[in-house]
Amino acid sequence: xxxYKVLATAFLTASLLLTGCTSEQxxxxxxxxxxxxxxxxxxxxxxxxxxxxxxxxQLQKPLKIASINQFSIGTFSSQYIxxxxxxVEEFGGEVQIYNADNDLSxxxxxxxxxxxxxxxxxxIDHGRADAIAPSVKKAIKAGxxxxxxDSDLNIPGVTVIDQDDxxxxxxxxxxxxxxxxxxxxxxxxxxxGFTPMERRNVMYEAFKKRYPSIKxxxxxxxxxxxxxxxxxxxxxxxxQKYPNKGDIDAVFAxxxxxxKGVTRAIQQAGRxxxxxxxxxxxxxxxxLMQEENSPWVSTAATDPTDVGKLQVxxxxxxxxxxxxxxIYSVQPHxxxxxDLPNSKVSMDExxxxxxxxxxxxxxxxxxxxxxxxxxxx
Length: 377
Description:
Blueprint: H1 3-20, H2 33-51, E1 64-69, H3 74-90, E2 94-99, H4 104-116, E3 121-125, H5 129-141, E4 146-149, E5 159-162, H6 165-179, E6 184-189, H7 195-210, E7 214-220, H8 227-241, E8 250-253, H9 256-269, E9 275-279, H10 283-290, E10 296-301, H11 304-319, E11 327-329, E12 333-336, H12 367-374
């Protein structure tokens, strides 16, 4: 990774930590000695559970998990779901996947269904708090642990993990600015209504102020069941509007479905002078980036399979009675075409070229190895 990108990421992360984090105080000072002793004993038991390789009693039976997704569009989502399924299977559990097809009311109804079915745990993928928080609170009240991914939920007891969307966006934008030497005309492909997209847009707005000589000449974007294809059509029309070299220098596409669409449109138009900077990565994306003369030169990403596995591990820790964080951000990485080998590589191999890729050890407990061994088929 280039030094300026490391510094930019470190600076951004430190700033976010200073401005976005708050400390919480233990409110047990007015409790009786009996209750204090009981709480201390409970914490001791949790610590003991986390430190031993013995499988906790709560996990002696297969867990039934509900995975409720706002949408399942593209290969990033499919690889995330694959990670969820694989980790639950390794732990001997069962997972039911619910796809709300971008219908938030349906998503809330699926949470209610999971509560009524008395599942052992609920995984939330995306969704907005104003639509699903009441249903999630019912799950917590019913004693069902919940772990969310890329959601704006802020409910005590619900762990929310994300990809550090602010860092993702800034890493990609910083790469774009450096390549353009701080000056040029760009296209922005974006759609609101999704928590990670809203967060990425925060950094884009800051980027425009930081680099005033980089001008946005066009903006479009929709989320559909055929997002990549629809984006391709929209980009093709835009290229006809701006037919000359130099009209467009780059495209910022903060979702890999957007990046795929604009990349294919640029390739078919033979406009290889236009460069694409994206967010997210999957096997399909990686193949497209590695094509000869591909305009997709850089993407900021986390490993979607690893994210799915991490979410499951946090859920199992909750069922075991262990403490889990209220929020957790997965470390993102900048993947650049120039750093990849000439031969084709897959997501399983990319860790050889991107340090730290897919190696998150968060949410692990010693007993997890024993649980996996007990459920080996």
